[in-house]
Write a structure and sequence with these properties.
Layout lengths: L31 E2 L10 E8 L9 E9 L9 E6 L7 H8 L4 H6 E6 L2 H7 L18 H21 L10 H15 L4 E6 L3 H10 L4 E7 L8 H25 L10 H14 L2 E5 L3 E5 L1 H8 L1 H4 L7 H13 L5 H13 L3 H4 L12 H14 L8 H5 L23 E5 L4 H8 L6 E6 L11 H13 L8 E3 L2
Parallel strand pairs: 4-5, 4-6, 6-7, 7-10, 10-11, 11-12
Antiparallel strand pairs: 1-2, 2-3, 3-5, 8-9
GO molecular function: catalytic activity
Pfam families: Abhydrolase_1, Abhydrolase_4
Keywords: Signal
Length: 481
């Protein structure tokens, strides 16, 4: 089963002065020509070895791949900028290949450094049992269903852990990833680094700031989540923004004759569809994921998110969503089959979940789930439900290695954030608001991770901040591009 293709994205005062390190680390790393397609001119690759378990530094090791684009004006070099990729499971080296053309100005003054985190090694070596879903996720309606789900997922986690030959299953938490990041810093010979973190990369970025605040020169965070305040609060922020996007969709549909629900109250049609689907699930078949059912909770969590976060060129996704809703209310759920059944399976794969459950992503019990559901209903009339990412971690068999807790900010520089006003700006602001003097730039349009999407206005602010440690004014918003 292809895992990555079906994950729904649930988806910054006086600063510390820049200083070049006294010692460079080239002698510690064996730089070589990078292999593969799309390698920018001048990129060199190396590898660093880190412990699988940082509590046993002399024990088993794992090798992480690095890449570097050296500063083009070495006499004016400030230091290094390390990319912290999202996913989790995204490859930072691929991110650097993608972003390099938009970061040429930054590269004048910095080495641009990327690495593939330990979870990419994990994904490359998953045994088959780790790709076998523990169940097909759906929202538990009572304690009995919740406990049955926990038992099924615990069994799947145990099977995956038992077949793991890397030792990584128990050590994919973001504190372990943060210690890897500092191993990269040491190997580079840098006293401090600047960082560009995106999406789930905000979790290891916060862990790094917790463990090594004196090693942070600057942080640019783009579309990140803020695990330190707890996943339930992040889920409510995400849901409130999704409800706003749903309102944009219904207004567009009302004004657009091509919308399959034009002339009706599209919101009312959707609410009736999801209510009926919870009472009488709609049978569907996916060419890839087989037979299953569309319940209302699955439609709200996966059906909506699979189409509406970005309307797409010519509003193609919104047109497709309206058509899928129109057909589903007539008993034909084929427009939702792949995205719903795919996500219901992927979010129950122990190999995928092992990368986040150690960051306390799961519900602690049925009481927390019921409370989250109640709060969600107050935030969203159209999309309220449980968080399927948290639901999948139900039954996690290990102690949570990186629990949610406040981030000490003493010694940290003000942070620059960026995010889409349609979605992830609220999450990013949740992160930057922790650190006095920080600013988040809004992007007035849909999208996720501005610097990887080539959005020039946020990129200019990021480059100015990272080079000069100058922040834009509070409330700065970039127009849609």
């Amino acid at each position: 089963m292809r895992m990555s293709g079906w994950l729904v994205a649930a988806l910054v005062p006086v600063l510390l002065a820049a200083s070049a390190p006294a010692v460079r680390g080239e002698e510690r790393l064996r730089w070589r020509e990078c292999e593969g397609a799309g390698v920018p001119a001048g990129m060199r690759c190396a590898a660093v070895e880190v412990p699988v378990d940082w509590a046993e530094p002399d024990g088993r090791k794992v090798t992480l791949e690095l890449a570097r684009l050296p500063a083009t004006e070495p006499a004016r070099r400030i230091g290094g900028v390390l990319g912290v990729p999202g996913g989790p499971g995204a490859k930072g080296i691929e991110d650097l290949k993608r972003a390099a053309g938009d970061l040429t100005e930054l590269r004048r003054r910095f080495d641009l450094v990327a690495y593939n985190p330990r979870n990419t090694v994990w994904l490359d070596r998953l045994p088959p049992s780790c790709l076998e879903p523990g169940t097909s996720l759906d929202e538990p309606r009572d304690r009995g269903q919740f406990e049955a789900l926990a038992a099924r997922m615990a069994k799947a986690f145990r099977a995956c852990r038992g077949d793991d030959r890397t030792g990584l299953f128990a050590h994919l938490d973001s504190l372990s990833v943060a210690r890897d990041m500092d191993a990269v810093r040491r190997a580079l010979g840098e006293e401090r680094l600047s960082f560009m973190a995106n999406s789930y990369g905000g979790v290891p970025m916060a862990a790094y700031a917790r463990l090594f605040p004196h090693r942070v020169r600057a942080m640019y965070v783009d579309g990140v989540v803020n695990q330190t305040v707890g996943w339930p609060r992040q889920a409510l922020l995400t849901l409130s923004r999704a409800e706003r996007v749903f309102g944009r969709f219904t207004a567009w549909c009302s004004a657009t004759p091509a919308c399959a629900l034009h002339g009706e109250d599209a919101g009312a049609v959707w609410r009736e569809l999801t209510r009926e689907a919870d009472r009488r699930p709609i049978p569907v078949t996916s060419p890839e994921f087989g037979k299953g059912e569309l319940t209302g909770s699955r439609l709200k969590s996966f059906g909506f998110a699979g189409f509406l976060g970005d309307p797409g060129p010519g509003n193609a996704r919104w047109l497709a969503f309206a058509d899928a809703v129109d057909r589903a209310r007539r008993g034909d759920g084929s427009g939702f089959a792949d995205v719903v059944l795919g996500n219901a399976a992927v979010w129950a794969m122990p190999g995928a979940l092992a990368m986040t459950c150690g960051d306390e992503r799961g519900y602690t019990g049925y009481e927390q789930l019921a409370e989250a559901r109640q709060k969600a209903r107050k935030v969203s009339a159209n999309l309220a439900g449980v968080s399927f990412d948290a639901l999948g971690c139900t039954g996690w068999p290990l102690k949570v290695a990186n629990p949610s807790r406040p981030l000490p900010v003493r010694g940290l520089p003000p942070v620059l954030g960026a995010g889409s006003t349609w979605g992830d700006q609220a999450l990013t602001e949740s992160f930057t608001r922790m650190i006095p003097g920080s600013v988040t730039v809004g992007y007035d349009g849909p999208g996720h991770v501005m610097y990887l999407s080539g959005k020039q206005c946020p990129i200019r602010h990021a480059i100015r901040y990272l080079i000069d440690l100058r922040l834009p004014g509070p409330g700065t918003v970039c127009p849609a591009e």
